[in-house]
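Example 3.2
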Amino acid sequence: MPEQTRTTSTDAVVIGGGPAGLFAALTLVRAGRRVALLEAGGDMRESLCSRLVARMDGRTVRDAEKFRLQCPRCTCLTGLGGAAFHFDTNLGYISSLTRSKIESAPDGTVRSYSGLERALGSFDRAQDLIGEAYRIFYELGLPPAGPPREDNGPLLGEGTVFQHVDTAYSQSVTVDDSLVVVARLKDELDSGGGSVLLHHRATDVEPLTGGGFEVRADTPHGPAVFRADDVIVGVGKLGLPWVRDLARRIGVRHRPSSRVDLGVRLEADRADLAPLLDGCHNPKLSFLNEEGHSVRTFCVCEGGRVMQYGFLDAVALDGQHCLNQPTTKSNLGILTTVDLPEHIDGTEHAGEFAARVAAHGGGRPVVSTVDELAGRPAPEGPLTTSLINYHHGDLRDCLPASIVRDVLAMVGRLNTLHPGLVPGTATVAAPVVERLFPDLDLSDDLESSVPGLYFVGDSSSKIIGITYGAATGMAAARSVLHRRVTTAAAAGGRH
């Protein structure tokens, strides 16, 4: 190491300032531990889209929109708070945890499950941690949720149109409220013995002989080294290549991902999709396709936009909630959970899926109408989509036939549920890829095969989402505290 490299000793290093990393750090600091939280981006406001900053500074919507129109691809995915908090978003279940996903069981039946339950080893434990996450959010200034809408569960066709329906009440959060929550959380960390270090990009994690770690980072003041007993990795989707490389290099036990989510964003006029969303703003509707793979709705954005970002040398799409300034559109993901043969690496498979679409679109996402996807004539004139920079092409030329079939099957079921819900002029945009981290061998506390090294949130390969991420961060931090108490007690006994 160069002589000018700064070295800092601390109890724990948390890599990534998203919900998982923030809640891990908060749990440790509240227990009296010294923590260095390394965030590659800046403070939350610093990292926000200039359109949002313009609005918050009192400029008109029209003026603010000019900034957004200069952003064909979103770059506001790093910074304190994580990607999700940089947009109006959905926190997830508020009253109770549910088993919202389905799969084909070995006996041929359909079973539901919760990804968080599987990650943490117990449904009750997962639900308790979600409840604790909400208590902390409210403590930090998140306004309590309003009353739920009238339940429309019976209207969503469970058992007739869909094999599984989840209309559990969930809470939305605006960027304005997120700024308050994240700022208060940061203040508590800084004043309680933690260090929130912005623009500190972790470059390496090295296990030390005899225990502990060295974490190397690039900082505004040059390279730095942090020595700690424990390391909690909580990077988001953009950190995937780094996590893959780290796991291979230091021998974290893992397997190629055998299950990935691939699909599209469906967008229609808000008025068209209103019958689906009048009773629940984020319904989760699922069925099994002919291969036994789950096809489901995902991340419903009523009055939102479709956004794109650069990913794995290609492009990927997501839904953006627009709670403060809703649009005339609504969109939702349609995902197929693909189980892959042992010889196929799921991460590579998802990357190739995204790259194939991007190549067809000249580096841009590809958009078709539902009519075009079904082989019917293309409309005249431009498409009505909220995407700013896209290629209007035939998705049948770049999507696997199975994905096209699943999307059309979902559209057909939605139209059976509510006739005319998805008109032929609605748009379908690709690619969407989720859950593609390597399958890390983690304990129920998210500890890897390298003792003291934890992976939480997206990087755990087990879950995504704000409250799910927060729950995994707390679980890992509590494990760190327990291990250190046990180690100290053992050392005292030897004396």
